[in-house]
Write a structure and sequence with these properties.
By secondary structure, the chain is α+β, with helices and mostly antiparallel strands. The protein has one domain: 2-Layer Sandwich (Alpha-Beta Plaits), CATH 3.30.70.330. It is 28% helix and 18% strand. It has a five-stranded mixed β-sheet with strand order 1-3-4-2-7, covered by helices on one side. A hairpin with a 2-residue loop joins strand 5 and strand 6. The longest helix has 15 residues. The radius of gyration is 17 Å and the shape is globular.
Length: 141
C-alpha cells in the first residue's frame, strides 16, 4: 500500500469524508449526485465547519437513511479548497445499495434544489460502450 493512503476514520457512523483523505473507491458502489446548492464557504478560523464539510455531513445523513454509507466526497480544488462544482460522490458498502439509493433519491429536493443522481448501473462502463459500438458497426455493415 502506498504511503499516500491513510486509514479511514469512523465519523458519525460514516467511514470517512473527503477531508484531505486520499483513498481508492469502488466505482460499482459509488453514485454521482449533482444539483447541489453550495452557499458561500465559511472560513476555517471562525469555528464553524466549512460549507463543503457541512454539505458532506448532510449528504451522509440523507443517504444513510437508505443504506450504510462508506464515504461522501465533494471534490475540491487542491489549492483553494473550494468545491470544483455542484456535485458529489457517495460510496456505499454494497453495489445494490448504491443502485437503490440513486433510484430513490433522483429528483428529490435537497436544500431547495432537485438532485440528479446516477448509480453505477446507469453509467456505461468503458468496455461495454466499446463493445456496443463494435457490434453496431457490424450490424450497419
Amino acid at each position: 500500500m502506498s504511503s499516500d493512503f491513510a486509514p479511514l476514520p469512523d465519523v458519525c457512523g460514516v467511514a470517512a469524508f473527503s477531508q484531505g483523505v486520499r483513498h481508492t473507491s469502488n466505482p460499482d458502489h459509488t453514485i454521482f449526485v449533482s444539483g447541489l446548492c453550495l452557499e458561500a464557504p465559511t472560513t476555517p478560523g471562525d469555528g464553524l465547519p466549512t460549507e463543503t464539510a457541512f454539505l458532506e455531513r448532510l449528504l451522509a445523513e440523507l443517504f444513510t437513511q437508505l443504506a450504510p454509507v462508506r464515504r461522501v466526497s465533494v471534490p475540491r480544488d487542491r489549492i483553494t479548497g473550494r468545491p470544483l462544482g455542484n456535485y458529489a460522490f457517495v460510496e456505499f458498502y454494497e453495489a445494490k445499495d448504491a443502485s437503490f439509493a440513486a433510484a430513490v433519491t433522483n429528483g428529490i429536493f435537497f436544500r431547495g434544489q432537485a438532485l440528479q443522481t446516477r448509480g453505477p448501473d446507469l453509467l456505461p462502463s468503458l468496455e461495454g460502450s466499446q463493445s456496443e459500438v463494435k457490434s453496431q458497426e457490424r450490424v450497419s455493415n
